[in-house]
Amino acid sequence: MKTAIFFDVDNTIYCHKDHKIPEQTKKLLNLLSQQEDIVLGLATGRGLKKLEIVKEVLPYFTYKVLLNGAYVLKNDEVVYDLPIKQEDVIEVLNYTKAHDINIGMIGIDDEAVNYMDQNFLDGMKMLRDIKPNVDEKFYEHHKVYQLWMFAKNEDEVFKAADLMPKFRVFPWHAGGADFTYPNINKAHGIKKCLEVDEISRLICVGDGANDVDMIELADIGIVMDNTRFQALKEKADYIAPHIHEDQLYDFFKKLNLV
Q1: Could you point out which of 74, 147, 213, 253 has its C-alpha 20 to 30 Å from the C-alpha of 167?
Q2: What is the span of the domain harbouring residue 48?
Q3: CATH of the domain at 127
Q4: Which one of 180, 202, 225 terminates a domain?
Q5: What tens digit of pLDDT does each residue of 19-54 get?
Q6: What is the 3-state secondary structure (H, E, C) of the chain?
Q7: Quick one: 104 and 173 in the same domain?
């Protein structure tokens, strides 16, 4: 029986408060990667370039489900690739111009914003400390797989989502969110991996709104206690200790998963 274990990145294996991967998490990933009956995967909203924060553990992962499932790799070979259509990016840009909302356009290796403002600066400082270029025409010379939206409050983000039903919103703080096509999510990307390999059991570990689908898909869904989304905890089979407690190895051992 072969088990696939997919981990989210931000505040699941990488702690933003401490700017590092907790020691028990590194120990766990190392041991899991050595087991012949286990294959490891990442499932994240990040692109390739933004995986640098976990570069010390990247060799442990066979699969990389990136940009919330729009781009999938197995051993650095592309398994799935679905960018957003240019006309759909333009539609969003036109909307945001009329409503003074900042938009980020995310490629596999780079990203850009249509303009820089305080909402954007606050959002990146709160979550990812990313500093993209300003390039309103980014979509003309890059494939765009995901959009960021930055507003003064979450209500503005959800209002925009209601007016653009071709997109699905994944909020990640009070005024910021990821926008993807409705069928694109981490579970979708993981399914593309399962089409490549015969997997008997799926375990998924995450903490964000964009982890709901993969937690529902998993045979064993594990949610970090540090999640701010109560609905995600309600869908979990198990609640793992808060990332600041650095107990992920002990938790997996207690469940006989390592």
Answers
A1: 74
A2: 3-81+184-254
A3: 3.30.1240.10
A4: 180
A5: 999 999 999 999 999 999 999 999 999 999 889 999
A6: CCEEEEECCECCCEECCCCECCHHHHHHHHHHHCCCCEEEEEECCCCCHHHHHHCCCHHHCCEEEEHHHCEEEECCEEEEECCCCHHHHHHHHHHHHHHCCEEEEECCCCEEECCCCHHHHHHHHHHCCCCCEECCCHHHHCCCCEEEEECCCHHHHHHHHHHCCCCEEEEEECCEEEEECCCCCHHHHHHHHHHHCCCCEEEEEECCHHHHHHHHHCCEEEEECCCCCHHHHHHCCEEECCHHHCCHHHHHHHCCCC
A7: yes
Same domain, 159 and 237: no
N- to C-terminal Cα distance for the chain?
A: 14
Integer angstrom CA distances of residue 200 from 61, 80, 197 = 18, 21, 10
Give the pair of three-digit tokens for residue 71.
């781009």
Amino acid identity of residue 63, one-letter, is: Y
**Distance between CA atoms of 215 and 18, rounded to whole angstroms?**
26
Give me the CATH number covering residue 49.
3.40.50.1000
Q: Could you report the per-residue pLDDT of 157-168, keeping only the tens digit for each?
A: 778 778 888 898
Record the tokens describing residue 155, joined without a space: 């209500």
Phi/psi at 238 (5° precision): -140, 150
Strand partners, 43: 65
Task: Identify the residue whose tokens are 């400082």.
Answer: 125
For residue 197, give both structure tokens: 């390999």
> How many structural domains are present in the chain?
2
Query: Do 95 and 77 lie in a common domain?
Result: no
Cα distance between residue 24 and residue 30, in whole Å: 10
